[in-house]
Specification:
With 760 residues, this protein is α+β, with helices and mostly antiparallel strands. Helices cover 53% and strands 13% of the residues. The protein contains 21 helices and 19 strands. The strands form three sheets. Strands 11-15-12-16-10-9-18-8-19 form a nine-stranded mixed β-sheet. Strands 1-7-2-3-6-4-5 form a seven-stranded mixed β-sheet. A three-stranded antiparallel β-sheet has the order 14-13-17, with no helix packed on it. Helix 3 links the parallel strand 4 and strand 5.
Length: 760
C-alpha cells in the first residue's frame, strides 16, 4: 500500500510533463477499451437478432382442421435483402395466437408492416403488388430482427392459401430459421476480428502503459538507489499504470455508450441494431474494468524490472542487451505451420479443416502474428548494427546507432501499423471464401415459378413484365412409380420455347430449327448423355382435352452452352410451343423468365412479378439470398474490424510519436548544439522509423499472404493464391510509410532549449 501511495504522489508531484503523459496514457487506453467493448458486444447483437427472429417463427402443422387459422410464409429477394411476407387466413381456431410485435392477427385485406416496409411503400409504390390490402399498422421492435428488416403480415382468405397453407399452432422456436451469421462462420468471424482488433489492441495497451519508458526507468532507478526494494520499485511503477488504465477503462466504457447510441441511429451498411442489443453486459464491463488494469499491472512491473534489478546501469546508460531471440522462434514455428499447408495446396492435395487442422491453422496464424511483433526489435537491432558499422553517411549512422541502443522504442511506434497490414491480408482471405457462397456472375438472371401456383392469365401477364427478355416452360416427363417392372423408366426435362427464346437464355446455341422437337446437348455437361434417340417420354397435363403427350427423343440436336447457374441447364429436349395443345397445362412444370443480371433490373422484374402474382413463390436461380445477407453482415463486421484496427494502429503511432518527441528532446538538442542541421536531424528521425517499418511491412505482406493462402486451402476454397488484392495491400503499405514519414517531422522542433540537456 505504501508503494501504491508513493506512486500516486509521484504521479501528482512530478511536474506538468508527467501529468500530461498520465492523461495521454488514459486517453489512449480509453480508445482501446472502447474498441474492446465493441468487439465483445458484437456476439450479443447477433444473438439478439436471432432471438427475436426465433420468437416470431410460426409453429404449424400440415393438417388443416376445420376452422383453423392458416399461415403461408414467403421470403423473396429484394435486391440483396430478403423480403418476408407472412400470409394469414384467420379462422375460429388459433386467431388469438399473435406473434411478438403485433396485438392481433390481420384480417382479410389488412396488412401490418415493418417501419422499413412502410417507408418503401411511400418511396417505391411498385412494391404494393407484394402486399395486397391496406396498411393497418406497424410491427413493433419486438417482432423484428433489426430496424431495417423487410417484414409484413398480410391478411387473406382461406381459399387463396388453402393449397399451401399450414394450420397455426403458435409462435416461437428455440433457434432462428436463418441466423444472422451461421455458427461455423461466426467462429471464423471471431478469429478474424481477434486478429484484426484484439492482437493490435493488446500491443496498443502495452504501448500506452510504457509511455516515457526511458525517463520513468531513470526515476525508478533513483528510488531503488535511495533504498526502495526491488519489488517495491516495480509496484510504484505499476501503481501509476494501473490508475491510468482504470481511468481509461471508465472513459472507454463511456465512449462506447455514446458510440452505441449514435450507431443505432445511423446504422452500418447491412447491420442495424436497437440500443438495448448493444448495451454493455456485466461480463463486458468486468473484462474491461479488470482485464485492462491487470494488463497494465503486468506491463508496468515488467517495464520496471531493469531499474529494480540494475539501477546503476540505468542511471549511467549502460550498453543495452541484445533483444531476446525467442520471438523469432514463435515466428518460425508459425510460418512453418502455414507454409506447410500452402505446400499441400501447391501439390494439389489440399489439407482439410477437420481434426487437428481446425486447431493448427488458427494457432499457426496467431503464432505468425505474435512472432512477427516480437521479432521486429531483434531485426531492427541486427540491421541497425550492421548498417552503422558499414555506412559512411552521417544520417544513416546517427539513425542506426539510436535504433541499436533502443530497438524496442522504435518498434513500439511501428508495430500497430505492421499488424494492421498483416491482419488485412487475412481478412481478405475470409471474404474470398465467403464470396464463394456466391451470387451469379453471368450477364442474365433466371426466375423460376411453379406453373401450378399461377393462372393462365397470370402466365401471359408475367411474360410481359417490363425487363423480361424471354419466357419459357420446363416440364418433367411422367414416371409410373407403381409400375410392376423391375426397372423404373428414364425421366427427362423438356424446355418449351422457340429458338429465339432459347438464344436469350443461353450463352450460345447452334443448329436450332423452329417448329421441330430437338435434342439439347451441352458439351460441358453430362445431363442427358445416357439417353438414346428413339426413346419416348410421356408428359401429362392437368387441364385441357389431351391428358398426355408422348415425345420421342430425336437424333437431331442443338449444341448449346448454358450460363452457370441456369434454369434450363437440366433440359434435354427443346419442344416448340406449337407442339403442345393450346389449352394444356403440364402437371409438373415451371415458368422460366430471364432478364439482365443488373441489380436494378432484377429489382424491377421482381416487383413486376409480385404485382402480377403476389403469393407465388419466386426462385431467384443461383442466388442464396440468406447467404448474401450473411456475407453482407460479415463484410460489414470485417470492415468495422479493419476500421478499429486502423484506429488502434494510428492511435498507437500517434501516441508513440508524441512520446518519442518528448523523450528525445534532450538528445536532439544536444546533437543540434554541436552543429547538426535541422534538415539532417529530420532525416535521421525519418530513417529511424521508416527503415524498420518498411522491413516490418514487407514481412507483414509476405506472412499475411501465406496465412491467407493456408486459410483458403484448408477451408476448401476454389481460390488458393489470391493475387488480386496484393496491389491494394502494397498501396496500403506505401500509405502507411507515408504517414510514418509525416509523423516523424514534429520530432525536431524549431526552438533549441539548452535546459533540456541538464542531467536529472
Amino acid at each position: 500500500m505504501r508503494e501504491f501511495l508513493l506512486g500516486l504522489r509521484l504521479l501528482l508531484g512530478a511536474g506538468r510533463g508527467n501529468r500530461i503523459r498520465f492523461f495521454l496514457m488514459a486517453a489512449g487506453g480509453s480508445i482501446g477499451v472502447c474498441c474492446l467493448a465493441l468487439v465483445l458486444t458484437i456476439p450479443s447483437i447477433l444473438n439478439a437478432h436471432d432471438g427475436r427472429a426465433a420468437a416470431r417463427e410460426p409453429q404449424t402443422t400440415s393438417a388443416q382442421p376445420t376452422g383453423s387459422t392458416l399461415i403461408l410464409q414467403r421470403s423473396d429477394p429484394y435486391g440483396s435483402k430478403a423480403f418476408t411476407r407472412v400470409f394469414v387466413a384467420k379462422g375460429a381456431k388459433g386467431a388469438d395466437k399473435t406473434p411478438p410485435g403485433l396485438s392481433e392477427l390481420p384480417g382479410p385485406g389488412e396488412v401490418f408492416v415493418s417501419p422499413r416496409v412502410h417507408d418503401l411503400l411511400r418511396d417505391q409504390p411498385a412494391i404494393k403488388g407484394l402486399l395486397p390490402g391496406r396498411e393497418k399498422g406497424r410491427i413493433s421492435s419486438a417482432g423484428l430482427a433489426h430496424p431495417d428488416e423487410l417484414f409484413a403480415y398480410v391478411g387473406t382468405t382461406r381459399d387463396r392459401i388453402a393449397d399451401e397453407g399450414r394450420a397455426l399452432k403458435g409462435f416461437g422456436y428455440s433457434y432462428a430459421p436463418f441466423p444472422a451469421v451461421e455458427p461455423s462462420t461466426l467462429t471464423i468471424l471471431r478469429f478474424a476480428l481477434g486478429t484484426l482488433v484484439l492482437l493490435p489492441l493488446g500491443i496498443f495497451l502495452s504501448v500506452c502503459a510504457r509511455l516515457s519508458a526511458a525517463s520513468r526507468t531513470r526515476r525508478l532507478a533513483s528510488l531503488r538507489l535511495l533504498g526502495l526494494s526491488a519489488k517495491g520499485t516495480q509496484r510504484v511503477n505499476a501503481a501509476e499504470t494501473v490508475v491510468a488504465a482504470l481511468l481509461g477503462a471508465f472513459l472507454g466504457l463511456g465512449e462506447y455508450w455514446l458510440l452505441n447510441q449514435v450507431m443505432t441511429r445511423t446504422g452500418l451498411p447491412s447491420l442495424r441494431w436497437y440500443p438495448d442489443d448493444g448495451a454493455l453486459s456485466v461480463s463486458t464491463v468486468v473484462v474491461c474494468l479488470v482485464g485492462c488494469p491487470a494488463l497494465a499491472w503486468f506491463v508496468g512491473r515488467a517495464s520496471a524490472r531493469s531499474a529494480a534489478e540494475n539501477p546503476l546501469a540505468v542511471r549511467r546508460t549502460a550498453a543495452p542487451k541484445r533483444p531476446a531471440k525467442w520471438g523469432g522462434l514463435l515466428l518460425v514455428t508459425g510460418l512453418g505451420i502455414v507454409a506447410g499447408y500452402c505446400v499441400t495446396g501447391a501439390m494439389g492435395r489440399p489439407a482439410s479443416s477437420i481434426g487437428p487442422n481446425a486447431l493448427l491453422i488458427p494457432a499457426g496464424v496467431l503464432l505468425t502474428g505474435v512472432g512477427l511483433v516480437l521479432t521486429l526489435p531483434l531485426i531492427s537491432y541486427s540491421l541497425a548494427r550492421r548498417v552503422a558499422r558499414t555506412t559512411q553517411s552521417l544520417t544513416l549512422n546517427l539513425a542506426m546507432r539510436r535504433n541499436e541502443v533502443e530497438p524496442g522504442s522504435t518498434m513500439r511506434v511501428v508495430t500497430g501499423l505492421v499488424l494492421l497490414v498483416f491482419a488485412a491480408s487475412l481478412a481478405q482471405g475470409v471474404l474470398i471464401q465467403l464470396e464463394q457462397v456466391t451470387r451469379p456472375s453471368g450477364p442474365v438472371q433466371d426466375y423460376s415459378l411453379s406453373l401450378s401456383a399461377i393462372t393462365a392469365q397470370q402466365q401471359d401477364e408475367l411474360a410481359g413484365v417490363r425487363g423480361v427478355r424471354a419466357e419459357a416452360l420446363t416440364m418433367d416427363s411422367w414416371v409410373d412409380l407403381q409400375s410392376p417392372d423391375a426397372t423404373i423408366p428414364d425421366q427427362t426435362t423438356a424446355l418449351v420455347a422457340t429458338c429465339a427464346q432459347l438464344a436469350q437464355m443461353v450463352r450460345r446455341s447452334e443448329g436450332c430449327n423452329d417448329g421441330k422437337v430437338m435434342r439439347l446437348v451441352d458439351p460441358n455437361s453430362s445431363v442427358g448423355s445416357d439417353l438414346t434417340p428413339g426413346t419416348s417420354f410421356p408428359f401429362r397435363f392437368e387441364k385441357g382435352k389431351e391428358k398426355e403427350l408422348k415425345i420421342t427423343l430425336p437424333s437431331e440436336h442443338i449444341v448449346y452452352s448454358a450460363y452457370s447457374p441456369s434454369a434450363v441447364g437440366s433440359a434435354t429436349l427443346l419442344v416448340p410451343p406449337s407442339a403442345l395443345p393450346a389449352d394444356a397445362r403440364p402437371e409438373t412444370a415451371r415458368l422460366i423468365l430471364t432478364s439482365s443480371s443488373e441489380p436494378d433490373q432484377v429489382r424491377k422484374v421482381l416487383d413486376g412479378i409480385a404485382a402480377v402474382a403476389p403469393i407465388a413463390e419466386i426462385e431467384l436461380v443461383g442466388v442464396n439470398i440468406q447467404g448474401l445477407e450473411q456475407i453482407a453482415v460479415i463484410e460489414t463486421l470485417l470492415a468495422l474490424g479493419m476500421i478499429m484496427g486502423l484506429v488502434i494502429g494510428v492511435a498507437a503511432f500517434v501516441v508513440s510519436v508524441t512520446d518519442r518527441a518528448v523523450e528525445r528532446r534532450a538528445q536532439v538538442t544536444a546533437i543540434t548544439l554541436i552543429g547538426a542541421r535541422a534538415r539532417t536531424m529530420r532525416a535521421v528521425q525519418c530513417v529511424q522509423v521508416v527503415l524498420p517499418l518498411s522491413i516490418g511491412l514487407v514481412l507483414a505482406l509476405v506472412t499475411g499472404k501465406l496465412a491467407e493462402s493456408s486459410y483458403l486451402i484448408t477451408g476448401g476454397s476454389e481460390v488458393y493464391w489470391d493475387l488480386a488484392g496484393t496491389p491494394l495491400l502494397a498501396l496500403a503499405a506505401a500509405g502507411v510509410v507515408a504517414v510514418a514519414v509525416a509523423g516523424t517531422l514534429p520530432l525536431v522542433g524549431r526552438r533549441i532549449n539548452p535546459e533540456l540537456i541538464r542531467r536529472d
